[in-house]
Amino acid sequence: MHVLIVDDESLARERLRRMVEEIPGAEVVGEAGDGRAMLEACARLHPEVVLLDIRMPGMDGLEAARHLAALPEAPAVVFVTAYGDYALQAFDAQAVDYLLKPVRAERLVLALDKARRLSVPQLEAVAAADPEPQGRSHLSSTLHGNLTLIPVANILFLRAEQKYVVVRHRRGEALIEDSLTALEAEYGPRFVRIHRNALVARAVLEGLEKGADGTARVKLKDCEEQLEISRRHLPEIRRLLRSGEI
Fold first, then answer.
1. Across all residues in the chain, what is the average pLDDT?
2. Looking at 129, 154, 182, which one is the last position of a domain?
3. What is each CA distance from 135 to 58, 59, 102, 162, 205, in whole angstroms?
4. Which residues, 6 or more positions from 18, have their beta carbon under 8 angstroms from its beta carbon?
5. Range from 31-35, 85-89, 124-128 carrying the lowest mean pLDDT
6. Is 80 exceeded by the pLDDT of residue 60?
7. What is the pLDDT of residue 91?
8. Of 115, 136, 176, 246, most Cβ neighbours within 10 A?
9. Do 125 and 224 lie in a common domain?
10. Total domains in the fold of the chain
11. What is the pTM of this model?
């Protein structure tokens, strides 16, 4: 069983490595110090189990685990933390087990055994059963099995196209499978709906223009593309621009 250890403290990673290496059939294939580094390591190393701390700088373990669940063959996650008050959130994030520091060797053996018995199809079924919580700092896009993280703060607009949503951000575009309705509910006032098929980040709203076809269009900062505004949503966009609430 290939294991990835994720903790922002090097001493904690070293202790876990020693414990894992004493378990027959278990092998440490890598380490990471935060959630983003964990996702990058998973893409390279394809571990079967991730031993994951929760409180880490940047992206914490809970959010990282939810992004991890979007991978086609997500590894099992065992949270390893000094804090007992994250248990419910951990299992909401599809965790196989939850270990409190200092980890006892016999508990680690049981957790890895549980992960070994949990097949990939079972993991996928669990991941599909629970929605993302509010307030993700990143959206995840999976293409050809590779996961890309998009900081929500860098998103200019979200536009529904067929069964996907196009995410236009400061570095380009990506496709995600979230629905606009779910994204609007999750992020509340961060985005404003301008059309039944489009949400725009309030922070980049700059003004209104009339298109060549006579339709109202919204001007965005740092974006040459102008998006059509439906007549239904035009009064609210005008109000926001006039009131300075953006």
1. 86
2. 129
3. 14, 12, 30, 25, 21
4. none
5. 124-128
6. yes
7. 64
8. 115
9. no
10. 2
11. 0.59
Instruction: Give the Å distances, CA to CA, from 84 to 91, 98, 101, 142.
Output: 12, 9, 9, 32
10 Å CB burial of residue 92 (0-12, 13-18, 19+) is middle
Q: What is the pLDDT of residue 93?
A: 66
Judge if 101 and 192 occupy the same domain: no
Q: Distance between CA atoms of 179 and 183, rounded to whole angstroms?
A: 6
The per-residue pLDDT for range 223-241, each reduced to its tens digit, is: 989 899 999 999 999 998 8
- pLDDT value for 120: 46
Spacing of C-alpha 31 from chain mean position:
20
Return the HEC string of the chain. CEEEEECCCHHHHHHHHHHHHCCCCCEEEEEECCHHHHHHHHHHHCCCEEEECCCCCCCCHHHHHHHHCCCCCCCEEEEEECCHHHHHHHHHCCCCEEEECCCCHHHHHHHHHHHHHCCHHHHHHHHHHCCCCCCCCEEEEEECCEEEEEEHHHEEEEEEECCEEEEEECCEEEEECCCHHHHHHHHHHHEEEEECCEEEEHHHEEEEEECCCCCEEEEECCEEEEEECCCCCHHHHHHHHHHCCC
Asked if the model's pLDDT at residue 144 lies above 60, the reply is yes
Sheet holding 164-169, edge to edge: 172-176, 164-169, 155-161, 198-201, 191-195
Chain position carrying tokens 């964990």: 38
Q: Are residues 11 and 94 in the same domain?
A: yes
d(CA 244, CA 158): 22
70/7 same-domain check? yes
